[in-house]
Amino acid sequence: MLQAERRNYIIEVLNRDGRVVIEDLAKVLNVSEMTIRRDLQVLQQHKLITRTHGGAVSHDLLAEETPYSKKAEQNMEEKRKIGMYASSLVEEGNVIILDAGTTSMEIAKGIVGIKNLKVVTNDLMIAAFLSKYEGIGVYCSGGIVQRDTVACLGDHAIELFKSINADIAFVGASSVDIEKGVTTPTAEKAQLKKQLTKSAKKTILVADSLKFGKVAFVNICPLTRFDLIITGNRIDKEIEQGIRNLDIELELV
Q: Do residue 218 and residue 182 come from a single domain?
């Protein structure tokens, strides 16, 4: 395979999966890992990708908010597994918080059928979905609707979550890093998520493996703020060990 063909292939995989791993690319393309590293370096210089430890992610993933329609296409099999496991932690009679996002939607699908639930969310699509089912009381935060993500933000939403005493808060993330913790592209979203981490007895981070090893614009909180992190088993092994070294419970699905 020619150099240009190899780099085009890398871009195709990134567009499809959102992430590439150097070791995997070297095996598939039958070249050395050093060759793949050089390819990734060139692609990053052209601002086509963003290098991460052991691989790369799409350049646009870190720069700004990703539209809901694009999120709904990324790593969905893993998000379904996360949602299935997370929903198994919910018990009859619980009050839970569901952060906005496609992973939280998978949790919402998993709790259908559990009786006497109260669900508080800032996600309009989750609120509409759960409102169809008896036995689930749905509370939507209101606030300013972010067009790209269909999430409610702002002071009104924050005030509602300040008044909530939930059993579990499921908090999503676009970027997770061992040192920087959870970060997000906008200050408005950071303010809301900070409050979500304070509104429940147990706070759980739910994020697929593509979100790890990334840092976005605004800090939310350190990883030690979470009682449990649920992610996919494709997470980088060094990142996995880094989380375990922080003495945080980690569930890989």
A: yes
Residue 34 phi/psi, 5° resolution? -65, -40
Specify the pTM. 0.75
CATH number for the domain spanning 97: value is: 3.40.50.1360
Question: pLDDT tens across 54-68, in order?
Answer: 888 875 555 455 555
Residue at which a domain ends, from 62, 86, 106: 62
Q: How far is CA 118 from CA 86, 135, 227, in A?
A: 16, 9, 21
Please give the single-letter amino acid code of residue 195.
Answer: Q
Q: What is the dihedral of CA 216, 74, 125, 232, to 10 degrees?
A: -80
Identify whether the C-beta of residue 213 lies closer than 8 Å to the C-beta of residue 219.
no
Range of the domain at 54: 3-62
The whole-angstrom separation of Cα 10 and Cα 91 is: 43
- Residues 220, 194: contact at Cβ < 8 Å? yes
Asked if residue 121 and residue 189 are part of one domain, the reply reads yes
